[in-house]
Design the sequence.
């Protein structure tokens, strides 16, 4: 019983800690973040196993962790509110060619990083960006402004798919 | 929905009914994992002490022993011998199975054994006045896995031996 409680407590602690750190830490790791994530297992390993190095204790620990992870994913899938709390929400960094500086500063994303992501999709100017979104997994998605005349055709296709699928 | 340069949020995905779908194989796997967790929470896989007692003609012996241990974990073995009869007993001696004790590491008894033979570990308790109790304790840390049957014999002058048996299960 003690092992189950230890693993559950450490799972919640590490999870809450990573969640508080923010999305950026999941997308790409800076040296500081890498050191942090490498040190956490070292620090908590003793708390997880105590003085009991038996296979039984390890099996209980692993089973507890997997059940917690599975339960968390079920919760996130079933309830949108839970998904929002656990995984976080996307943050808009660029709206119609304009940097949203407050959001960027809150998420610790610089303009240079946004431009790096723009370059990856072949864009060089901010006006070419319709949306840049910091996704919950830490990656930045860049959506280009659609070329003139392209929009109606894409909208039609999306509606057709919905009708066929539904 | 046409593209709009005034929208404050990007287009949202269409409505989707969220439901839980678990395949048969997944249900079996998660069920097995959950069973391990529930067994652990219920204490089935944990360390558990056991109790055994025997008495004969005023001589009583009680043992608190490890019923379930995990490999290399320890629990105490505590044996209480009481003279519940009206007369004093002399030359009381406790003999513990050596084969049982062989399943544990660094076993140290208090009081110290007087002799260790091929069959048993002998602890002399001496004379035991009426109503008095003697206690023998040791810490048992498992060094082999499986079921370990054990027990003791209690001897006193001019009496037949009093036996007590138990077993310890050592989980891997």
Sequence:
């Amino acid at each position: 019983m003690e092992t189950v409680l230890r693993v559950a407590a450490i799972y919640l602690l590490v999870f809450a800690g990573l969640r508080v750190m923010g999305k950026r830490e999941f997308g790409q790791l800076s040296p500081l973040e890498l050191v942090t994530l490498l040190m956490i297992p070292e620090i908590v390993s003793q708390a997880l196993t105590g003085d009991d190095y038996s296979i039984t204790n390890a099996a209980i620990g692993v089973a507890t962790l997997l059940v917690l992870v599975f339960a968390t994913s079920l919760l996130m899938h079933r309830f949108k509110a839970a998904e929002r709390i656990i995984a976080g929400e996307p943050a808009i960094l660029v709206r119609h060619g304009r940097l949203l500086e407050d959001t960027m500063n809150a998420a610790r994303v610089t303009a240079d990083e946004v431009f790096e992501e723009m370059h990856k999709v072949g864009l060089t100017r901010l006006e070419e960006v319709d949306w840049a979104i910091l996704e919950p997994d830490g990656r930045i998605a860049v959506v280009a402004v659609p070329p003139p005349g392209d929009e109606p055709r894409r909208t039609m296709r999306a509606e057709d798919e919905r009708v066929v699928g539904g | 929905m046409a593209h709009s340069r005034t929208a404050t949020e990007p287009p949202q995905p269409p409505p989707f009914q969220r439901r839980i779908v678990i395949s048969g194989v997944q249900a079996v796997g998660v069920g097995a994992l959950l069973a391990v967790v529930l067994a652990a929470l219920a204490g089935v896989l944990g360390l558990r002490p056991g109790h055994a007692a025997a008495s004969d003609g005023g001589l009583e012996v009680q043992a608190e022993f490890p019923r379930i241990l995990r490999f290399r974990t320890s629990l105490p073995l505590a044996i209480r011998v009481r003279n519940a009869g009206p007369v004093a007993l002399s030359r009381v001696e406790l003999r513990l199975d050596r084969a049982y004790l062989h399943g544990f590491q660094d076993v140290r008894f208090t009081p110290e054994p007087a002799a260790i033979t091929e069959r048993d570990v002998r602890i002399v308790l001496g004379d035991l006045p009426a109503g008095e109790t003697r206690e023998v304790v040791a810490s048992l840390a498992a060094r082999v896995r499986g079921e370990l049957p054990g027990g003791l014999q209690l001897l006193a002058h001019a009496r037949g031996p009093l036996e007590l048996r138990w077993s310890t299960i050592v989980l891997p």
In short: Chain B has one domain: 48-171. Chain B has a mean pLDDT of 89. Chain B touches chain A at residues 1-3, 5-10, 14, 18-20, 30, 33-34, 36-37, 40-43, 45-46, 70-73, 171-172 (CB under 8 Å).
